[in-house]
Design brief:
Strand order of the largest sheet: 3-2-1-4-5-6-9
Helix content: 25-40%
Oligomer: single chain
Order of helices and strands: EHEEHEHEHEHEEHEEHEHHHHH
Length: 266
Amino acid sequence: MTILVTGARGSIARAVIDRLVTAGEDVRAAGSDPSKTPPIEGVPVVGFDLADPAGLKAVLDGVDRVFMYAVHSGIEDFLDAARDAGVRHIVLLSSIAAEFPSNPIGDMHLAVENPLRESGIAYTFLRPGMFAMNALWWADAVRSGVVGLPYPEAHVTPIHEGDMADVAVAALTGSGHEGKIYPLGGPESLTVRRQVELIGEAIGRELRVEVLPREKAEALMPAPVLDMLAGVVDKPQKPGPESEAVTGIPSRTFAQWAVDHAEDFR
C-alpha cells in the first residue's frame, strides 16, 4: 500500500518523503501546485486540493497511510474521502499551541485535530513547539551582519525538522502510535541571541544583535509568536519532550541545525 505525504514542498514533508523512500516504502507526494514541487526520484507528485472531492478520490486511491499538515479548510471532505479510500492511519503535524486553546495558532490546529479524532480513522498528532527553521526569518539580516531581535534574551527549545520527520516516519511505519499525541521540543533551552551566535559560528562570521522594536517586529513575525517570546524573556525552558523517546535517535541540537543550514545564511 501507499503512503501519501501532503505539502510536498515543505521542508518537513520533504524530509519525511526522503526517509520513507530510503526505507523502501511506496510513496506518493501531493501539493497544491505540483509544478512548483522539485522532482523527487521515484515518487509521483500529484495535485492536492481539499475543496475538490472528486480529485481527492484519485489522490487517495490505494493509500492506506497519510502524513499531512494542519489545513482546516475542507478537512471534512478530505476525511470522508480518506474513509472511502480505506485510509487506516493519519499522522498530523499539529502544534504545541493546540494544548492551549483560545489562541489563534492553537485554534487553527484544533480545527483539524478535532474532526480527525471524530473521523474513526486512527491518528497520531505531532505537536512540536518552536521550529529551528524559524531562524530562517533572519537570513537576510545574517547576510548583512546585523540581526534585529525583538526579545534577544527570550528562551526557546527549537526543534530540528529532521527530528520531526523521524517521529512522523516512526508513526507511519511502526506500530503502537495510533491515538497518541507527541509533544516535541528541542534538547536544550537557548536564548534567541545564542541562536544567532550559533549561526555565526556555523558560517564563520561574527554577527551583531540589535534590539528590534515590537512595532517593527510585527511586520516580520506573527503576533502570537512575539507574545510567546515576550513571556519567556530571561526564563530558561524545560527541554523536550524529545523525539528520541519515540525514535531512539538522539535529538539534534540547534548548533547542528545551524551547520545543516549554513548555506541558507551565506
